[in-house]
Design a protein that fits this description.
By secondary structure, the chain is of the alpha+beta class. The chain has two helices and ten strands.
């Protein structure tokens, strides 16, 4: 019986040592003051910095499955704050992307409707609340935005961002 107790004690000591080593490794891997990962360049732009915002565009979201305005125009290189006001009683979101990206994400949301979002090009806005997205549109072209909450996109809750070439570019 003493051997059994000794074996259990040894196993517990090893498990405690392994846990402490893992905790130490996790702490060492994330030193205090470590830089956050660099923003990811997407075909429709890159996460912007609040201090670089050139203008704010207010967009209302409503339960009739509309964004107002549904078309916005910006210049290539502009950092814009999209201020999203949910005027409805349902959760809404704004997801930026290409048509293909939006459609692929919409299909994914149908399969996994409770999927969490934490990307800088996606903002959930609860009923009656306001949410902000700061985005640098550094690629000219036409891009989409949509609400991918269950059935909202299919009911027409979508819009377009037209990014005009930077002044002096053609």
């Amino acid at each position: 019986m003493n051997k059994t107790l000794a074996s259990i004690a040894a196993c517990l000591a090893l498990a405690a040592a392994a846990t402490a080593a893992q905790a130490h490794e996790a702490h060492v891997a994330k030193p205090q003051g470590a830089a956050t990962p660099a923003p990811e360049q997407k075909p429709w732009g890159i996460a912007g910095k609040a201090g670089a915002v050139k203008r704010t565009i207010d967009i209302a979201m409503a339960d009739d499955m509309t964004f107002t305005p549904s078309v916005i125009e910006v210049r290539e290189g502009d950092t814009i704050r999209l201020r999203l006001k949910n005027r409805g009683k349902d959760l809404h979101e704004l997801v930026l992307g290409t048509t293909a990206e939006i459609e692929a994400h919409a299909a994914m949301m149908k399969k996994f409707p409770g999927m969490e979002h934490d990307e800088p090009w996606m903002v959930h806005v609860p009923p009656g609340k306001t949410g902000d997205m700061v985005w640098t549109f550094n690629r000219a072209g036409d891009f989409d935005f949509a609400c991918l909450v269950k059935d909202h996109y299919e009911l027409g809750m979508a819009g377009r961002v037209r990014v005009l070439p930077a002044a002096g570019k053609s």
